[in-house]
Write a structure and sequence with these properties.
The structure holds two protein chains of two kinds. By secondary structure, chain A is α/β, with parallel strands linked by helices. Chain A has 16 helices and eleven strands. In chain A, helix 2 (28-46) packs antiparallel against helix 3, helix 10 crosses helix 12 (359-372) and helix 10 (311-326) crosses helix 13. Chain B has a domain at 5-43: Histone, subunit A, CATH 1.10.20. Helix content of chain B is 34%, strand content 4%. Chain B has helices at 5-14, 21-38, 69-73, and strands at 79-80, 83-84. In chain B, strand 1 and strand 2 form a beta hairpin. In chain B, helix 1 (5-14) crosses helix 2. Chain B starts with a helix and ends in a 13-residue tail after the last strand. Classes of the chains: A alpha/beta, B mainly alpha.
């Protein structure tokens, strides 16, 4: 063993953790205990986890240590504790999408992405909270519990991957995995002051991810820094015969040229951002971000995508239409919750669904059913597809003028718990900058860019051409390296001041 | 676009959902507000989608084992002798009303 390192194990990067475990400088068991101890410390205040698999994680860590002791090679995530969103299947474990309708459901198989994480040596410590069926931007739509933002406990962590984001931000684990359908990795990463990445559509297999909107769902990593997010992405990416939308092309190593900088790259900034009414602190951060990119050697060019304004409307028609079809399978017959007392098959469907789904899920199923219904299909679903095609062409045209596109990730920092809960439309508008990359299937990285006047994290989004993940990570790393970052969250506004959590 | 309570009930029936009478009005108001917002789509230029089906992967049509019956049934709300137990299908109620 080498001399004890100055930094606590839980503060190490994913890369350094795996390196030390593989080299025998520490053990997977020690790393796990540090993560479990931190988790026990922060969970009472944060509420990121729906279930913690401590015993199983200890067994898994012990097996990794035994393999290392036997001289076997372990993967690039050797001994790295990770958290999973509650819509990713791990065989034999509950997966509920934070919904009552999936109470008691146990995954009968493992998601491809999770299989790859296990093969790489990662140690899942638990499943984490989310907006029910990934529908929401605050994690308040969970049917189970609230999750609080580690920067300010009176605020939301973002959503729908609020649990995975809060777990990383609070220092419980260095890496977590969520799903992103319209911003559900990037927006909570932004609000929680961490890095989140949505891969190109088709880059990561969706096998074993509970479907929300199949044409945009992607699994991706949340981490404390860009390199760790790139490593997490690289492990889960790649072809998979079990998902026919998964691209059959090799994965370029995103870490290979990640330190090469962005000198000479053209970065497009949306003209529309300045007219969008950002608060002064957010606008300042946005302009400083552009200056930082320019300072790192990028050439900033202005681009205009007029259909950007329609992104929310397009997204909420297409995603809810797909959701209304995907969620038809939850009917109380084959799995999940079945209403008691229904005296016919039809009544079983209606009662099980009406009791099992929460308000936001019902709202979206209703909206999607409406958009697909006879008499409205052309005006809504058909129209949304047509405007999406315009958006795709405008974005294609923008990429002839630049290599990457940047925007804020979220129009605001973290909002207060309850602030938007009664106004679904206000909540939907949180997704203005994240939905275009989802709709068009582009890779997009959210990363810390500064703070607003209340000390809440703000975020920059970097979007690339399809399958240009290495370029996106390289730009993200250059931006990160040019900044002066404070990454420890503040745990402000404790309901119980003097309570036990220390900032990491 | 205001949605009437009758329209909300019709959509709910298509979606196999039912709302309490006091919820109908709230859903009608919220959905109406969202549909108003979505109506802005009419003001944006649309484009014809090209046929993107060419080049989609065609997997070999090979038979692979499915989920073993017992593992599937482990999640069933009610099972008997290896089958799912469901309520009787009555024509009048199978529509979900």
């Amino acid at each position: 063993m080498s001399a004890p390192a100055a930094a606590p194990l839980r503060d190490l990067s994913v890369e350094e953790t795996a390196r030390r475990v593989a080299a025998g400088e520490t053990t997977a068991a020690e790393v796990l205990e540090a993560a479990l101890s931190r988790t026990a410390e922060v969970e009472p205040e944060i509420g990121a986890y729906l279930e913690i698999w401590a015993d199983e994680a200890r067994e898994r860590a012990a097996r990794i240590d035994a393999r290392i002791a036997a001289g076997e090679s372990v993967g690039p995530l050797a001994g790295v504790p990770i958290a999973l969103k509650d819509n990713l299947s791990l065989e034999g474990h509950a997966v509920t999408c934070a919904s009552k309708i999936l109470e008691g459901y146990v995954a009968p198989y493992t998601a491809t992405a999770v299989e790859r994480l296990l093969a790489a040596g990662a140690v899942p410590v638990g499943r984490t909270n989310m907006d029910e069926f990934a529908m929401g931007s605050s994690c308040e739509n969970s049917s189970v519990q609230l999750t609080r933002n580690p920067w300010d406990l009176s605020r939301v962590p973002g959503g729908s991957s609020g649990g995975p984001a809060a777990a990383v931000a609070a220092g419980s684990v260095p890496l977590s995995f969520g799903s992103d359908t319209g911003g559900s990795i990037r927006q909570p990463a932004a609000l929680s002051g961490i890095v989140g990445f949505k891969p190109t559509y088709g880059r990561v297999s969706r096998y074993g991810l509970v479907a929300f909107a199949s044409s945009t769902d992607q699994i991706g990593p949340l981490a404390r820094n860009v390199r760790d997010a790139a490593l997490g992405y690289a492990v889960i990416a790649g072809p998979d015969a079990r998902d026919s939308t998964c691209a059959d092309r090799p994965v370029e190593d995103p870490l290979a040229g990640i330190e090469d900088g962005i000198r000479g790259l053209k970065v497009g900034s949306f003209k529309e951002v300045d007219a969008s009414g950002l608060a002064p602190a957010n606008a300042r951060c946005w302009h400083e971000s552009l200056e930082r990119l320019a300072g790192a050697g990028a050439e900033i060019v202005e681009v205009s995508v007029s259909s950007l304004e329609a992104a929310i409307a397009v997204y909420y028609v297409i995603a809810t239409s797909e959701a209304s079809a995907n969620l038809a399978r939850f009917d109380g017959i084959r799995y999940g919750r079945r209403a008691s007392g229904a005296n016919s098959l039809g009544a079983t469907y209606v009662q099980s669904r009406s009791e099992g789904f929460g308000a936001e899920v019902k709202r979206r199923i209703m909206l999607g059913t409406f958009a697909l219904s006879s008499g409205y299909y052309d005006a809504y679903y058909g129209r949304a597809r047509a405007v999406l095609e315009t958006m795709r062409r405008e974005l294609d045209a923008a990429f002839t003028k630049c290599d990457l596109l940047v925007s804020p990730t979220s129009p605001t920092g973290a909002f207060r718990i309850g602030e938007r809960a009664a106004d679904p439309l206000a909540m939907y508008l949180s997704d203005i900058y994240t939905t275009p990359a989802s709709l068009v299937g582009l890779p997009a990285l959210a990363l810390p860019a500064g703070f607003d006047d209340e000390g809440l994290p703000l975020s920059l989004q970097i979007t690339g051409r399809p399958f240009a993940e290495p370029e996106v990570f390289r730009a993200g790393r250059a931006f990160e390296a040019a900044g002066d970052w404070r990454v420890a969250p503040t745990f402000k506004n404790r309901p119980n001041p003097g309570g036990g959590v220390s900032s990491p | 676009m205001a949605l009437t309570i009758e329209e909300v009930r019709k959509i709910a029936s298509l979606a196999r959902l039912r709302f309490a009478p006091e919820e109908d009005g709230r859903f009608a108001a919220q959905l109406g507000q969202i549909v108003d917002y979505i109506d802005q789509l009419q003001a944006f230029a649309g484009s014809d989608e090209p046929d993107r089906s060419a080049g989609l992967p065609e997997g070999a049509d090979t038979i692979v084992p499915g989920l073993p019956r017992e593992r599937f049934l482990a999640n069933a709300p009610e099972e008997r002798d290896g089958f799912l137990v469901v309520a009787e299908v009555k024509a009048s109620e199978a529509e979900g009303s």
